[in-house]
Amino acid sequence: MWQDFAVAFCLMLILEGILPFLYPERWRRLVQILAQVDNRHLRMAGFVSMLLGTGLLYLVH
After folding, report:
1. Cβ neighbours of residue 45 under 8 Å, at least 6 residues apart?
2. Cα–Cα–Cα angle for 31, 6, 49, rounded to 5 degrees
3. HEC-encoded secondary structure of the chain
4. Tens digits of residue pLDDT in 1-45
5. pTM for this predicted structure
6. In the chain, how many domains are there?
7. Domain residue limits at 32
8. How many CB atoms lie within 10 A of CB 17?
């Protein structure tokens, strides 16, 4: 089970690093925009992302 978590963590790091690697200027602008978004909207986006990820994981598995 721990190996699966390690693999998932490594894949997350790879996916998270693609945009900053390919488009560093766009990534910087996106981070600046996100810094101005209020906490409520960020929490909602995070919640929707978690639900979507959970649903997709259920479908794939």
Report:
1. none
2. 40
3. CHHHHHHHHHHHHHHHHHHHHHCHHHHHHHHHHHHHCCHHHHHHHHHHHHHHHHHHHHHHC
4. 899 999 999 999 999 999 999 999 999 999 999 999 999 999 999
5. 0.70
6. 1
7. 2-60
8. 10
